[in-house]
Amino acid sequence: MKKKLIISIFYIIFAFNSNLFSDENNKTLKVGLLAPLSGPYSEIGNSLLYSLQLALEEIGDEKVKIIPRDSGFNDKEKISSALEELKSLGVKIIIGPTTHTEFKEVNKYNDLIFISPSNISPKFSNNIISIGVSLDSQLIALKEFIKKQKKKKTVIMYPKNEYQELVEDRLKILNLENFKKFIYSPNPEVLTGEIENLTNYNQRKRNLELRKKMFQDKEDEQSIKELERLDQLYTLGGVNFDSVIIIDFGNNLKSVLTSLVYTDVSQSDVLFTTINQWFDESIFYENTIKNLYYPSVNYKEFKKYNSKYFKKFKIYPNEITILAYDALGLIYYAWKKNGKINSINDFVFKNKIKGKIGTFSFKNGKVIQNLDIYKTENNKFVKF
Questions:
Q1: DSSP-assigned letters across all residues of 206-246
Q2: pLDDT of residue 185
Q3: Distance between CA 384 and CA 380 in Å, rounded?
Q4: pTM of the model
Q5: CATH architecture for segment(s) 6-132+299-369
Q6: What confidence tens digit (pLDDT) does each residue in 189-236 have?
Q7: Which regions in the chain score pLDDT beneath 70?
Q8: Which CATH architecture has domain 136-199+239-296?
Q9: CA distance 35 to 257
């Protein structure tokens, strides 16, 4: 069987002869941007606009036009007004919205196509394609990684919060029911006690004390050495799992990691993994964990993109803007390939697509990223 061809978006867009598609009705590709250009999240909106400017420069086709409009923040009237104006200008395809909460509003516009950086669900939703780094893609990558590490007893850990139902839905769809689930409180004071129960910490502490008592009154050399060895331990006995997937971020993630180490979970026996951290360097200062693994976008391309963005605009971009960068390349590729864009079916490609974030594919009405596995090691992000 022939190996599937991996298509590089920006390689192909330069390789295409612009004279191949001369449809008079499709001489110009008008792409709308629906983003919060005002209000509390205007920084994200402007960062998206800058990112598309970089993508336009790389595409180098004057027939491609970006038309930005302000969506505000949870402002239905502003979204409606922006979309009506974009339609009047002949825009058929739009990058946005940036949040899943706005999907219901844009779903009303069935004659428009939306490419959203949202990561809530990888499924095509009527007229919306989400290209964010979905939980599905991350869990698929982690499942394969854990399998290759020959781990067989995995605990998936996630907090009780507004995303709990979403997480459980994704676990069910991906057939991860055979993995043990552990739902914890986001309150650090409660969390420690819950993880003590998960790791059978108190019993393991008692095991150690009972073992030490067996040698405390003995004076032979072997007993003395054994007691010295036991004095170096905090608990005795292992836990009933060999890997964890922690679905959490920031300080909450650090609290979970700290609690696991506090309860003396052996890092040599248990594989610690989490979900995409967008290369958050603050994790380096969490000294309790030597090796933490997670799936992510391509780090090399991510750094190159950030460097290029900073060089031009003298500020660093918001992480999701690299998705908008890829979205424009994807739209341009579909436009050149098909000669036009009429529906989301024009984005159902048989081959894999390679963008800045890495390789992704469109299968069964879903966008799935083929993510790399990275680990934190000696204050560096290392591709595993």
A1: HHHHHHHHHHHT--SHHHHHHHHHHHT-S--S--S-SEEEE
A2: 95
A3: 12
A4: 0.84
A5: 3-Layer(aba) Sandwich (3.40)
A6: 899 999 999 999 999 999 988 888 888 888 888 888 888 888 887 888
A7: 1-26, 177, 284-288
A8: 3-Layer(aba) Sandwich (3.40)
A9: 35
